[in-house]
């Protein structure tokens, strides 16, 4: 059941991202049913604790949403970018979890891998957005669970769509 009133979007984000977007933070929302249109939203509520997926539920109010907006639609949230820190798109297969650290394997100049901690800003249908990488970093996108620190690999260029940097 749902009540008739102001529409909102629910999104789950990482703990650090939730702390960086307090109640009242403006965001933009793009609906899956009309990707060419963006709606203005505002963070209305942040759950006080992590859930089983180690993410935080954030509710975003859509005060200017059309009244005929159907419930249950998918949406994409665009958060304000962190001051001066670049964000990068990666395929979801690049993510590696070790203990409490979310990380990716990065190649050095000698083709050896090292685990590098990143912060996931958003999970998207086509991958994820992270921060914590340096410009030009070469990230392993496949087979990450078969690697160990210092292992030498032979890189093969990623053949998927390049999403570039930024939110």
Tally of DSSP β-strands:
12
Q: Give a short account of the largest sheet.
A: 5 strands, antiparallel
| Full CATH superfamily name of the largest domain | Efflux pump adaptor protein, beta barrel domain
Alpha-carbon distance between the termini?
33 Å
- Write down the Rg: 18 Å
Strands ordered across the widest β-sheet? 1-4-3-2-5
The pLDDT mean sits at: 83
Q: In which range does the helix fraction lie?
A: under 10%
The share of residues in extended strands comes to 35-45%
Instruction: Quickly give the CATH architecture of the largest domain.
Output: Beta Barrel
Could you characterize what this model shows?
There is one protein chain. The chain is mostly beta strands and 167 residues long. The chain folds into two domains: 7-78, Beta Barrel (Elongation Factor Tu (Ef-tu), domain 3); 87-146, conserved putative lor/sdh protein from methanococcus maripaludis s2 fold, CATH 2.40.420. It is built from one helix and twelve strands. A five-stranded antiparallel β-sheet has the order 1-4-3-2-5. Strand 8 and strand 9 form a beta hairpin. The longest helix has 5 residues, at 15-19. The chain starts with 6 loop residues before the first strand and ends in a 28-residue tail after the last strand. The model has no long low-confidence stretch (mean pLDDT 83).
What order do the helices and strands come in, and which of them pair?
Elements: E1 7-13, H1 15-19, E2 26-31, E3 38-46, E4 56-62, E5 75-78, E6 87-90, E7 96-98, E8 101-107, E9 113-117, E10 119-124, E11 127-131, E12 138-139
Antiparallel strand pairs: 1-4, 2-3, 2-5, 3-4, 6-11, 7-8, 8-9, 8-12, 10-11
């Amino acid at each position: 059941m749902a009540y008739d009133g102001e529409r909102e979007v629910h999104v789950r984000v990482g703990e650090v991202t939730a702390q960086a977007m307090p109640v009242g933070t403006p965001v933009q929302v793009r609906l899956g049913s009309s990707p060419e249109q963006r709606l203005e939203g505002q963070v209305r509520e942040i759950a006080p604790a992590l859930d089983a997926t180690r993410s935080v539920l954030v509710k975003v109010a859509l005060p200017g949403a059309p009244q005929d907006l159907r419930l249950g639609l998918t949406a994409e949230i665009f958060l304000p970018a962190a001051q001066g820190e670049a964000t990068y798109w990666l395929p979801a297969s690049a993510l590696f979890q070790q203990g409490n650290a979310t990380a990716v394997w990065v190649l050095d100049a000698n083709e050896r891998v090292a685990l590098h901690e990143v912060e996931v800003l958003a999970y998207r249908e086509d991958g994820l957005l992270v921060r914590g990488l340096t410009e030009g970093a070469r990230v392993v996108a496949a087979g990450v669970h078969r690697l160990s620190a210092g292992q030498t690999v032979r890189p093969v260029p990623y053949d998927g769509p390049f999403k570039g940097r930024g939110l």
